[in-house]
Amino acid sequence: xxxxxxxxxxxxxxxxxxxxxxxxxxxxxxxxxxxxxxxxxxxxxxxxxxxxxxxxxxxxxxxxxxxxxxxxxxxxxxxxxxxxxxxxxxxxxxxxxxxxxxxxxxxxxxxxxxxxxxxxxxxxxxxxxxxxxxxxxxxxxxxxxxxxxxxxxxxxxxxxxxxxxxxxxxxxxxxxxxxxxxxxxxxxxxxxxxxxxxxxxxxxxxxxxxxxxxxxxxxxxxxxxxxxxxxxxxxxxxxxxxxxxxxxxxxxxxxxxxxxxxxxxxxxxxxxxxxxxxxxxxxxxxxxxxxxxxxxxxxxxxxxxxxxxxxxxxxxxxxxxxxxxxxxxxxxxxxxxxxxxxxxxxxxxxxxxxxxxxxxxxxxxxxxxxxxxxxxxxxxxxxxxxxxxxxxxxxxxxxxxxxxxxxxxxxxxxxxxxxxxxxxxxxxxxxxxxxxxxxxxxxxxxxxxxxxxxxxxxxxxxxxxxxxxxxxxxxxxxxxxxxxxxxxxx
Length: 490
What we know:
The chain has 490 residues and is an alpha+beta fold.
């Protein structure tokens, strides 16, 4: 798929769209940084305003013969193991441009999200160009998630693939299991690094290479292409006098970072560390921070749904017209889906993992809880097969409500917020009850129960949003600019 990725220039005090560039925003949280010991990763998948997604469960498969994956996006090809684990995924509405499965949790309790698009500088690309038929975002989930049993194993598998076949783009990839969260970055055609998120820390990333100092004496917390030090030395790529700062060696520091990327990181760190004062577009924003308070899955959702609330930069706030358009928000109209993958401390991986999924724009949608152990997804999450509006598609149910609110945000925003708040409470109650019941189940019985619970919550979300849309349409009939106040005496 050729994504619509736009670069923005700062012209006359406002952001102006110029040429294709990228969009996603990510968050990772270690287990000791959360209120319940969960490891959490999440990301907004951004592409274009109307580009539907589906949500599916791939069953475990054992093949008699060796398999070969060939991408429909760029002809990348590689052999696959004969055994593939069950996993959830959010593929595109069409396979014409490739799969783009993007995010999921497998049967071993491993979560993966791919990718956070980033950009390498011309120095490293001159020495190690991107590979036209190398692995890209389109294939990463498909050739990695079904074949790993831990987050660390996921980093090793993907790293080997990138080193062997090359990659056609620079990206950040998120991995998690019950014990660890890892962030993986490709820096050029073949070179990569990965860092384990400390258990007491979090990271927010926004389309810029994020990992900083690499400690090559600490393989428990860092992994890397075995030849990366020699590569950097041979081509004199390190601009820093001491150390190995991956961001500074491989990344960029330009105008797009200043107005498109850095403000989103600033806002996430402002949310979780309000006591720290930082410039909105500082190049020194750290990759890792320890939050002031313990974080919850709701904090991850709130960040991914954010648009600079409480600041002059909120596009729907009260700032000046220039400030409201100054920086690219986290949640925006081109989001296809937003996900938070939560790995809790339960013995059964089917129960421990929750794939929280918000179809469409996160700020206007709601995160529905799907347990990792589900056997299937509702029909509405599998029916998108064209780019135009389909009333039976979950993507379009949530998208339609957002479009209605967009037309009259100040009149309708409160109605949307009320539905979101009510659903979030009901989803939370359903998860508490399902956790209690599920701990006494296992095997087929547990899978059937978790499928039933998840389907019920998905259907509840769709019903409430359809009802909301009906209410918004009814109320909108009185807001036409063609209204005229008639004199009752006539």
